[in-house]
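Reopening this one. Same input as before:
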Amino acid sequence: MRNTLICTVGTSLFDPNLRQLSTETKNAPENWQAIRQAFDSGHWKKLAQELLSVDPTQRLCGAEINTVQEAKGKSWLSLENIIFLVSDTPNGRNTGEVLQHYFRNRSDLKLRTVEYQAVDQLQDERPKDFKVHGLRNLVRCIGDYIQRFGGSDYIAIDATGGYKAQIAIAVIVGQALNIPVLYKHERFSEIIDFPPLPITFDDQILARNADLLTDFERGKAFSSTELGAIDEKLRVLLVEVPVNGESVYELGPIGQIYLTGFRLRNPKPINLVPSDNRKPPTFRDDHYPVGFKEFVEKVWREFPWIVTANSLPYDKQPSIKGIGFYVREEEKRQMLVGTFRDNRFGARFWLHLTDESSSALAWAADFLNQQYRPDHFDS
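Same output, byte for byte:
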């Protein structure tokens, strides 16, 4: 049963709810003055304690408390862990403090874990950083907590609070990763849930572009001149920014969802097992970059599911930027290709695995790109 609720968080608890709390407030609780005093003085533990005396269904308590109260009544949710993802702002962190103190003291819920996490660059002062980095970091945070608490089968997402784009991304993550998403608009009388949709991923986009997507994920940007012709399926995962009259591409939030989803669905192909017939790498009689042979042998030695490796003929050598791994098709056969470059030129090699299915090759390309940082060896 699902037991963990990941909540996007806004700041409506503070503004307008508590900031406008006064004698004019309709249905103000008896302790409204103590609530207001704790809020004005920034005593977050005291504020949380006072809010415990208020009916959690009251609008004053804010969207997060309201929706958690309703969520606990869902028959498919055994509420044991709550994670609040807050904005990278003072109000965001302070709201997280209040919610953390509040739910840790909700003895009726018997929660095991209550935490909040500020999502880096999820703020409204720098729109570009919000769009490119903040939303991607939100996806990463959700993915990290999904892994921490056992996988998609144990998670629900409450996407009621926060920026509209933040809510939208949380909904897409849920839909893409087969996770139910809860939502309540201020005019809704009750919470609703979006059931997971039968969304499929084309893992071959990652396989063919694994090295490039790894660079993008590490924060690199590439101009249209550097990339050349872009696969339209890859373009969907990127955001385009005009710089000095030229398009520059970075990984977008949808791209991060794609990568996170792939890794959660493919922790490791079950058939990628150690080989019983390993053979050392072989090399053509060519002139290679300094350190090339040593690197190929290192990769082969460190992962027993690599049966052997061999060098490949030089082809489009100038396009080799450093260390990277990707899958390419040649003569109707898929190959896991690695690249290496010193400060002069580059070379390629072919890795042979115990499982050479499409999913195993895609997983291995992504895994190896994470193990060996290309920028450590760039020219």
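So the earlier flakiness isn't reproducible anymore. For the record, The domain at 2-194 is CATH 3.40.50.10770 (Rossmann fold).
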